[in-house]
Protein 1
Amino acid sequence: RYHLEKAIHLATTGRPGPVWLDIPLDVQAAQIDPDDLLPGFDPAELDEPWTRTDVTAAAAAILERLAKAERPVVFAGGGVRLSGAHADFITLVEKLGVPVVTGWNAHDVIWNDHPLYCGRPGTIGDRPGNMVTQSADLLIVLGSRLNIRQVSYNWASFAREAYKIWVDIDPIELQKPNVRPDMPVVADLKDLIPALLDQPYAGPTAEQREWLEWGKERGRRFPVVLPEYENSEVCHPYVTMQKLFAQLAEDDIVVTGNGSACVVSFQTADLKKGQRLWTNSGCATMGYELPAAIGVAAATGRHKRVICIAGDGSIMMNLQEMQTIAGYGLPVKVFLLNNNGYVSIFQT
């Protein structure tokens, strides 16, 4: 009882995620009397360092640094949604009025036509997002672990001119030997973002407004889908994804596989307000997309359309789940990128 309750608590609070609980076979097969079990798990036993941070003081320090910056950028990660602070996040960035870029698997935290959206940085991001991030003099990282796909193996050059304020609920992430924060903040965004909203702030300076326009201009000058892609002899995957996302509704949920299905979609997706975009963060588990799409359809009560983008290699790993989709009448639409092979493998 104790360990099951602890595992459930760890999986659903703080930095939520999978918990490994190894139960020996003899324990699994043992007869028990629930009334005789030892007392259950008490969350007070855990050390939760983010609860000890003075978020009011941290918010004041962040805003003080922001007010002095000329080229600030907010880098939004998956923690924005995991913390349950997404709505407050949108209110916050609109209060700050500075460029916003999105991290890997967090691109749907802000929609493409939002006036503050400036791209998707990373090794498989887009040019505008990388240009804005690399030109910043202040980078405020909210809930991203800045993995290697984000910062590259040449992590010393990541936002090299920027003073880095890095907010994460997990202090271990802030101690990694690659990107070093100048102002590490161990905090839960559901606590810190309201504290930032409560602080008085005058809004963006004239220099920051000019900087925002510079960032928006990068997006106009360096589109992901180039005009010459339209002239491809075969169906170009970037053009295909661009036209697909143009047809999607605001409440559609997109689930992608790995490889081209993920990278091309993440680079080209013109996300609308309310859309969600999912993948398994490049864990390279081929066959992810069909079961994930089924899970999304079930979790949303079959009330939302699910767009499943698969590769021709990956879909073969769980092709039988097409029968599950058909048998239950799930609102899943499957789009297959057939490039005749395991591109992520033979490219390396």
Protein 2
Amino acid sequence: MAERMLAARLHGPGDLRLEEVPVPEPGPGEVVIRVERALTCGTDAKIFRRGRHPALGPLPSPFGHEVAGEVVAVGEGVTDFRPGMRVVAANSAPCGSCRMCQRGEFSLCPHLTFFFGAFAQYARIPAPIVRVNLYPIPDSLPAAAAALVEPLACALRGVEVAEIRPGETALVLGGGAMGLMLAHLAQLRGARVALADPHPERREAARSIGVDLLLDPRDALAAKLEEAFGERPDVVIEAVGRVEAWEAAAELARPGGRVILFGGCPVGTRASFDTARLHYQELTLRGVFHHHPRFVRAALSLLRAGRVPVDLLISGELPLTRLPEAFERMERRQGFKFAIDPWSDG
């Protein structure tokens, strides 16, 4: 294994630098992987633009969290993994012992261990993640596809919390990568699915995976949904992360409907809801954040079975040296996610 590597490090808002740094060595319980592919995501784009994230740590910081690769070194006490194994890591792990974890509310664990450092040639996986959220992957599964496991796990949890049942109707607000995954998973659960997004290319992407009803949110959504479904949808999933979308989601569900607030709004923002409608029409509003280990395992099973539209979600491949370009393309809506190859001279 080399002694030095290339790694992207975030120094501030829009200040991402490719630097030569020492290859990490594994501590007790840790694993070091040779990164095959890392994926960009909307959270990365926000962190790049804002230069901060509560879990990121002090700047300059390693960057990126969706990754798959090959084990090259293991720390003391690691017995389930060995050099040469291909693996995929989720981006966090709960402690397993606090009150939240004992209740099974793993995403609310106050001691979540997060991983950053996917945009590099080698990455060190923290011991808590090695224990519960690092998984072998077969040679038949491309690394870029495997690296989808973390966002797919979040989407799986979203549709499970929504309790979508066969024959129900669901509306997804937002046609980005997460919105497309949520719509696809709602279809797998047997729902008739509508998706609303103002951008024609995103609606076309949703059409390609068989979404039943495509809508422009600037139109009269409630009337179009009632015309198509006979009533407003049973479930509305907000996947935009804007206050106005949260508020619209609550307005668009049928009486007795479930509203999943999946997209995270900026810290400190406030949303307003019609209290009479929430009360007298018995709406259920539920926030959903992050994933649990069992959803990571379920996501990996779907990916291995080829039941996820990987080629639609990953819009192309770029070398690590062009990582800022990937975020610029995402900002211009010229792609959903990009696979980053840290070894290409590209």
Protein 3
Amino acid sequence: MAGRCPAVTQLAPREMTMNRRDWLARVLPAGGMSILAGALPAWAQTSPTWPTQPLRMIVPGGAGSGTDLMARLFADPLSKALGQPVIVDNRPGANGLIGNDLAAKAAPDGTTILFSNASAVSVNAALRRTLPYDTLKDLTPVIQVSAGGVLLVAAAGVPVRDFGGFLDYVRANPDIAYGTWGVGSTGHLTMETIAHDSRLRMRHIPYKTMGQLLTDLQGGVVKLAFVDARSPVALIQSGRLVPVAMSGTHRAPQLPNVKTLKEQGFSFDLDGWYGFFMPPRTPPDIVSRLNREIARIMQAPALQSAFAQQGLLWSAPNSPEQFSQVIRNDIRAWKEVVAKAGITPE
């Protein structure tokens, strides 16, 4: 004999047209709605009032590095625009992998921002066989804010004043060491391309921070290096470092007399960049809001003046989708550089 079916509550037609929240309020026991809401992760309960907490801006570079200096230009105006403190959190090391990985694994609740660069994002993806995160899935692009090359410099006592002099000096001193801010940095890959194409023998010394590299350049521990185009300007102006050449498509605004590699006969015009990211699965409305606020800040005369004073190359604001495509194109281009230079992916 078939068992009896449990009684089924019949809903009136009016009740069947209720919205889901009202219906849940009727059928769940007292307190059930709050229990259900509590089961949802905080990031899924998006509020139009975002942000309601201080924001952490992870910077995968040490204090005083080019990435750090750029990030701090945005921290204060972004804090004012969002109505919450924006706290810079420097996480240098491993060519930006430490900071990037921290952001990639952060909760997608809108409280974490990553300010990173082409070396840390695109070049790492092109050079390394494995990463602790998936570049295209675990870093959510928000907006690109700048583009430009990196700077080849020599210690003050080295008889090098231009790229031709650099080639002569390295050929006369085989196996000479050069420094960059990390394995897989744009500086590292640019120098390896130069060494490959010009048949030079050089040794790479990777540094954890730009500050350490600049200190050793001044002390003569290393005599040649690729550095960012911002942090060594005062040392160049005081004569403690000698600028040799810029990579990329443009001269550095703060060093207008320093020619690009291409202008000096070596064709290498890949630009680096800086940009903002958020953790994966961050609600799209939060990403869009952050994009809009940063785009407004970029258009402000105060920020453009700061860019000019610090010699930074300003980029026209782009959308998250456009920035994502920049990164995809960048990874493809740097993979070609790695293959051409015969660099073995790590």
